[in-house]
């Protein structure tokens, strides 16, 4: 059973994140949270809560990301980082196996304990999508399951959605309702966090922290944070009839967006659900051991669809259509859920500012 | 409960024998180093791993008497060339079999047309053998095969043998040599030369995509139900377990939902450029 599948218990209030970070580290977790690096919020391992990106906010628009000074007291006043939980569920590079002679050895048996601190509701929804992809099919991945079980998920309810966010349209946020061990709502004046637990593991962690029961006032203030965030969504997608609209394979819109798209694959790299991968093969010069390494791949690369020396999707338009159609339509056919969680990362990190919400709105 | 090996971990298989079929094509017989080789359905494929070089999907063209798979490989890239270069005693990785095979059960009592272009004969070979093993269970059995040149014809001994076992076997070539006395042209042209009752016929077609589409369209034009024509599609199958994304065709993962698909399902998707 994963986090968030148990019964909820009453919320509590904590005043500092330091005991949480210290407590998790004492339990052997690497705590990974948002920090400022090269003027971007990135997720990295932190030794203490002091390292977190307190006092910063961000401005996100199509093709644009800027860090700005925010409320000096607040720790989570920014929207989605280019990093999601994906590197921890599906590592960007992982060794699959080694083979020497007739001996084949599987790699990736280790699954270090990692506490992800500061995930958003969209990130949790993306993890649920990846669970379905890697565990829900005919060939479930035991290495994914090991990594997944070793992850502790600490969500933060968004207070300040980004300019490219549309989780409300995709029904994934802004409030985290499931799939977490702990969910925090950060409140000001006085600075504090309302903490909800999503299962036994979260309860044990909270029990060991200095805390007090949440009052009705705390809970009202927390609810107001999520309500306000929902009202300030940067963008919107109309999902009604979306599969039908995306079956317009011959729409002239594809050529127009294809002319703008650089096929750089940024959108697929920052997407928290894009799961496509490829394998690299190597042989050791010293002892002849062959190794297979699985790494992230992207449907925007020319070689992705190659058959018999030629790509099936040779044009930018064809590759963009594949990505958008897969994400919002055929994903539903394949996995019974949308591949988009509305985090807006693909819009922000597109170097030419292609906006999926605009592309979808412009389809017939 | 999820456990056991990773879905992309192969098992070691030893090359038991190697038969060169053409200058660039060999048939390997592969046997598991340990244990038995899992059963397969005609039309399924395995992922063959040349250690250190890479992995490719290869159709199973038969089961060897000794309990292995026979698989025919054409050297077109680094991995297939490495596999073609394997010698008896060498060890490769193998996982599978994977994918949906031919609907042999749906052919019971019907005329059957088996149409192959080039290496497309490889996944059809076990179909023909299965049909001929239960010869009375079917109507007329026709095998039509196309090859670029007479010297490039695959499985010529098998073709002769099938003709002797009650199949109408016809072969055409694109480029005849002086000795060739048979038809010249497309596989589709051979449809004129065989006898079948279109409304009581099913067809299994494998070859280059254009050849499959042409053949299927011609059979349908003559009255064969589109749902009774099956094609074996080729897409970039890298993982074979619907997790790498490369082989997608619309909503399908060709590795898992295919490679064999009914023509009525495949045709609308194949008609969309770059889908």
What's the topology here?
The complex is a heterodimer of chains A (364) and B (275).
Chain A: E1 12-14, H1 18-26, E2 30-37, E3 40-45, E4 56-61, E5 64-69, H2 86-89, E6 93-100, E7 103-106, E8 114-119, H3 121-135, H4 142-149, E9 151-156, E10 182-187, E11 192-197, H5 200-207, E12 212-213, H6 216-231, H7 242-245, H8 252-260, H9 266-270, E13 277-283, E14 290-296, E15 306-307, E16 310-311, H10 316-335, H11 345-348, H12 356-361
Parallel strand pairs in A: 2-8, 8-9, 9-10
Antiparallel strand pairs in A: 1-11, 1-12, 2-3, 4-5, 6-7, 6-14, 10-11, 13-14, 15-16
Chain B: E1 11-22, E2 25-32, E3 45-50, E4 54-59, E5 62-63, E6 69-74, H1 78-84, E7 91-98, E8 111-117, H2 121-133, E9 141-147, H3 156-164, E10 168-173, E11 201-206, H4 209-221, E12 229-232, E13 248-249, E14 252-253, H5 254-257, E15 260-262, H6 263-270
Parallel strand pairs in B: 8-9, 8-11, 9-10, 11-12
Antiparallel strand pairs in B: 1-2, 1-7, 2-6, 3-4, 3-7, 5-6, 12-15, 13-14
Distance between the termini of chain A: 43 Å
Mean pLDDT of chain A: 95
* Percent range for β-strand residues of chain B: 25-35%
Which descriptor suits the 3D outline of chain B? Answer: globular
The major sheet of chain A is characterized as: 8 strands, mixed
Beta-strand residue percentage of chain A: 15-25%
Given helix and strand content, the structural type of chain B is alpha/beta
Overall structural class of chain A, as computed from helix and strand content, comes to alpha+beta
Largest interface: A-B, 56 and 43 residues
Q: If you had to describe this structure to a student in words, what would you say it looks like?
A:
The complex is a heterodimer of chains A (364) and B (275). By secondary structure, chain A is α+β, with helices and mostly antiparallel strands. Chain A folds into two domains: 12-231, no CATH class; 242-361, no CATH class. Helices cover 30% and strands 23% of the residues of chain A. Chain A has helices at 18-26, 86-89, 121-135, 142-149, 200-207, 216-231, 242-245, 252-260, 266-270, 316-335, 345-348, 356-361, and strands at 12-14, 30-37, 40-45, 56-61, 64-69, 93-100, 103-106, 114-119, 151-156, 182-187, 192-197, 212-213, 277-283, 290-296, 306-307, 310-311. An eight-stranded mixed β-sheet of chain A has the order 3-2-8-9-10-11-1-12. In chain A, a hairpin with a 6-residue loop joins β13 and β14 (290-296). In chain A, α8 (252-260) packs across α10 (316-335). Chain A is globular, with a radius of gyration of 21 Å. The two termini of chain B are 36 Å apart. With 275 residues, chain B is an alpha/beta fold. Chain B has a seven-stranded antiparallel β-sheet with strand order 4-3-7-1-2-6-5. Chain B folds into two domains: 11-98, Elongation Factor Tu (Ef-tu), domain 3, CATH 2.40.30.10; 104-231, Rossmann fold, CATH 3.40.50. The model of chain B has no long low-confidence stretch (mean pLDDT 96). At the A-B interface, β6, β7, α3, α4 and β13 of A face β1 of B.
């Amino acid at each position: 059973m994963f986090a968030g599948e148990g019964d909820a218990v009453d919320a509590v209030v904590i005043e500092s994140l330091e005991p949480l970070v210290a407590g998790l580290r004492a339990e052997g977790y690497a705590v990974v949270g948002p920090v400022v690096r090269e003027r971007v919020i990135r997720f990295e391992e932190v030794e203490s809560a002091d390292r977190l990106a307190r006092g910063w906010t961000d401005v996100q628009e199509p093709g644009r990301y800027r860090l700005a000074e925010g409320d000096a007291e607040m720790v989570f006043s920014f929207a989605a980082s280019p990093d999601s939980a994906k590197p921890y569920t599906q590592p960007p590079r992982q060794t699959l196996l080694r083979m020497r002679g007739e001996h084949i050895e599987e790699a990736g048996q280790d699954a270090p304990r990692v506490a992800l601190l500061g995930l958003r509701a969209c990130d949790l929804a993306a993890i649920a999508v990846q669970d379905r992809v890697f565990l829900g099919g005919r060939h479930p991945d035991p290495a994914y399951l090991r990594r997944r079980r070793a992850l502790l998920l600490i969500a933060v309810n968004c207070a300040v959605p980004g300019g490219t966010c549309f989780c409300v349209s995709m029904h994934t946020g802004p409030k985290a309702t499931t799939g977490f061990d702990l969910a925090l709502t950060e409140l000001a004046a006085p600075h504090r966090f309302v903490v909800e637990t999503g299962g036994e593991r979260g309860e044990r962690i909270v029990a060991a922290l200095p805390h007090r029961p949440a009052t009705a006032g705390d809970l009202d203030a927390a609810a107001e944070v999520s309500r306000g965030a929902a009202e300030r969504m940067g963008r919107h997608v109309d999902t009604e009839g979306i599969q039908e609209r995306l079956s317009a394979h011959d729409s002239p819109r594809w050529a127009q967006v294809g002319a703008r798209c650089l096929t750089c694959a940024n959108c697929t790299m920052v997407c928290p659900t894009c799961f496509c991968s490829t394998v690299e093969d190597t042989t050791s010069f010293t002892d002849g051991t062959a190794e297979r390494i699985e790494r992230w791949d992207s449907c925007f690369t020319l070689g992705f669809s190659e058959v018999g020396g030629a790509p099936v999707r040779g044009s930018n338009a064809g590759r963009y259509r594949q990505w958008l159609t897969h994400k919002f339509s055929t994903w539903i056919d394949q996995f019974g859920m949308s591949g988009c969680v509305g985090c807006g990362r693909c819009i922000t990190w597109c170097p030419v500012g292609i906006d999926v919400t605009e592309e979808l709105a412009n389809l017939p | 409960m999820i456990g056991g090996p990773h879905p992309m971990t192969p098992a070691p298989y030893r090359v038991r024998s190697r038969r060169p079929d053409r200058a660039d094509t060999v048939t390997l017989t592969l046997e598991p180093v340990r244990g038995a080789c899992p059963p397969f359905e005609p039309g399924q494929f395995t992922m063959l791993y040349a250690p250190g070089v890479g992995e490719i999907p290869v159709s199973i063209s038969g089961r060897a008497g000794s309990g292995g798979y026979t698989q025919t490989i054409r050297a077109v890239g680094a991995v297939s060339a490495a596999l073609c270069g394997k010698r008896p005693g060498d060890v490769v990785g193998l996982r599978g079999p994977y994918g949906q095979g031919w609907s042999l059960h749906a052919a019971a009592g019907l005329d059957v047309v088996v149409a192959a272009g080039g290496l497309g004969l490889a996944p059809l070979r076990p179909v023909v053998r299965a049909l001929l093993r239960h010869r009375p269970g079917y109507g007329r059995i026709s095998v039509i095969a196309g090859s670029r040149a007479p010297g490039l014809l695959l499985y010529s001994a098998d073709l002769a043998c099938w003709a002797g076992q009650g199949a109408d076997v016809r072969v055409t070539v694109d480029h005849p040599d002086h000795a060739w006395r048979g038809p010249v042209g497309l596989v589709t042209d051979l449809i004129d030369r065989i006898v079948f009752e279109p409304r009581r016929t099913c067809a299994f077609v494998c070859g280059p995509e254009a050849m499959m589409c042409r053949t299927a369209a011609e059979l349908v034009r003559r009255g064969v139900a589109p749902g009774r024509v099956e094609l074996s599609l080729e897409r970039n199958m890298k993982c074979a377990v619907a997790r790498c994304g490369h082989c997608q065709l619309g909503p399908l993962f060709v590795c898992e939902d295919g490679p064999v698909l009914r023509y009525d399902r495949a045709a609308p998707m194949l008609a969309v450029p770059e889908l």
